[in-house]
Amino acid sequence: MFEHIQGNPAPRQPVKSRPDGRTWWDIRVSSQTDLDHPRVRRVIDALTAAGLPGARAVRMLAADVRTAAAAAEALGVTVGAIANSLVFDADGGPLLVLTSGAHRADTTRVAALLGVHAIRMGDPDFVRAHTGQPIGGVAPTGHPAPIRTLVDRELRKHPVVWAAAGHPKALFPTTFDELLTLTGGQGADVAVAG
Q1: Phi/psi class of residue 66: alpha, beta or left (left: φ > 0; alpha: ψ in -120 to 50)?
Q2: Does residue 18 sit within a domain?
Q3: If you ran DSSP here, which 8-state letter would residue 165 be given?
Q4: Beta strand segments in the chain, E
Q5: How many of the other CB atoms lie within 10 Å of CB of 175?
Q6: What is the CA radius of gyration of the chain?
Q7: Range of the domain at 71
Q8: Which residues, listed in sequence order, are joined to residue 90 by a DSSP beta bridge?
Q9: Is 7 exposed, middle or buried (0-12, 13-18, 19+ CB in 10 A)?
Q10: How would residue 192 be classed by pLDDT, with cut points 50, 70 and 90?
Q11: What pLDDT does residue 152 have?
């Protein structure tokens, strides 16, 4: 279903021009070296250890995709099929919420669900300290230690969802059920009511 293109393939036709004049190219893997980036390698190794097929289908894009909207545009999928990785500080500890890119997480709902007093977005240093990855490239796995995780039930509406692979250019295909298995997380309704 998905494939790697090894080496430095010739660029394909542009998928879509961006307002800033740059172009997203449909390049699955620009080179083997890209896949050997330490953070991407940790994600691939974790996917392989879990026996998940996403390990063989990591895509390195030509440009960073630090938002769900940018990732959806680059991949040609709906924004709801992007598993947005949000790292929160929940009473001083890390919490990873994998939510559909189509909506925002409701921190009040999440706090009540988990029985914690305070949840706030982790700052870049907090995120990197707990995941080893930068904001905009946080994967559901490949962290220095397991992180408590909630997986948005909204993601189950999509037969394939895309998650970051430890780098702002790297993504891999997966499913709601695979995300639960991979993270040891629990499914939850995390969206802002509306």
Answers
A1: alpha
A2: no
A3: -
A4: 14-17, 23-25, 59-60, 82-90, 93-100, 119-121, 148-152, 161-164, 170-174, 186-188
A5: 19
A6: 16
A7: 25-188
A8: 93, 119
A9: exposed
A10: confident
A11: 97
SS3 call for 44: helix
In a domain, 125, yes or no: yes
Select from 45, 190, 37 the least CA-distant residue to 108: 190
Read off the CATH number of the domain in which 52 is found: 3.90.960.10
Nearest to 192 by CA among 81, 105, 101, 96: 105
- 48 with 42: CB under 8 angstroms? no
Taking the C-alpha atoms of residue 137 and residue 164, their distance in angstroms, rounded to an integer, is 5
pLDDT tens-digit map of 22-50: 333 333 434 445 677 889 999 999 999 99
Token readout for 79 is: 């924004």
CA-nearest of 86, 81, 80 to 106 is: 86
Cα angle 55-126-136, degrees, rounded to a multiple of 5: 45
- DSSP character for 191? B
User: Which alpha helices (H) appear in 18-123, and where do they start and end?
Assistant: 32-35, 38-49, 68-75, 107-114
The verdict on residue 10 lying in a domain is no
The strand pair at 82-90 and 93-100 is best described as antiparallel
Task: Say whether 111 sits in a helix, a strand or coil.
Answer: helix
